[in-house]
TrEMBL record:
Biological-process GO terms, alphabetical: methylation
Protein name, UniProt field: Anthranilate O-methyltransferase 3-like protein
InterPro entries reported in the protein's UniProt record: MeTrfase_7, MeTrfase_capping, SAM-dependent_MTases_sf
Pfam family, one: Methyltransf_7
Alphabetically ordered keywords of this record: Magnesium, Metal-binding, Methyltransferase, Transferase
Domain of life: Eukaryota
GO molecular function: metal ion binding; methyltransferase activity
Taxonomic classification: Eukaryota, Viridiplantae, Streptophyta, Embryophyta, Tracheophyta
Amino acid sequence: MRPMLEEAVGEIYRNLLPEKMVVADLGCSSGPNTLVVLSEVIKIISNQCLRVGQQPPEMQFFLNDLRNNDFNNLFRSLDHVEQRLRVGKGTISVPYFVAGLPGSFYGGLFPRHSVHFFHSSYSLMWISQEQFHRDFSHFLKLRFDELVPCGQMVLSFLGRNKKDKLDGEMSTIYGLLAEALDSMVREGLVEEEKFDTFNLPLFVPSSKEVEVIVKLQGLYDIIHFQTFESNLDPFDDDLDDNVVLDNVQSGANCAKVIRSVFEPMIANHFGSAIVDDLFSRYATNVAKHLLKEKLMLPVLALSLKKKEVT
């Protein structure tokens, strides 16, 4: 992902040489990796300024998520950005400003032609193929209107490798969660009727389905498009080894990721009282599975450049 990010941000800067540059991270959440993109973009701009001999632009970052996101925790984490960006030899200090932006990215968020670069990682999700076609098309149109000429986006989200709607690791992830719920039913902690009527809808598109929508709209050039496998544990970046050194900790990390996605739906159906216990059991189930193999998910990543309108 970093090469894609570096190329997109670098090209925007070199082509426009803006005095002010606006970057938005859509669906930023408030987890441990939220501010990594912010740090990376600043480093990229610093390196670009050194290469072309220009003073750095003022960077305005908008961190977007739904209104119930823990923005206070997010802002408390900004000290980590300062640590990452300590200016050393051969670097340029880039002035930057950070603001929270609550609201849905399926609605308008910015004035027309005001944003240079959009980033979104694992935030675009759909419950059905029909919703995917409708909402992804709408998302692309909204961002097109908000991007400056020659603006770009880098998006990554869950995809699938096969024609089946749900396969492989996603089925495993769902199965381990179902086992945790079932154990609570057997212990009388969850009503069986509620368990039987519970459904977690999720549609993950193929690369072809994504490509068709982008080309059908005709609003963007596809600069890069790739499919890769990502570890469900965000703290385990060793893709060359299928061995998990600390399966208990990794299971807890994976459970936090899945909880951040599905907790609202689970709490709405069963009530919030079961959530802590459920994901504690889920973490245990995942830890046992990790003794056999890691949980890897197919991810689609694409870099899009706004087309010039004639």
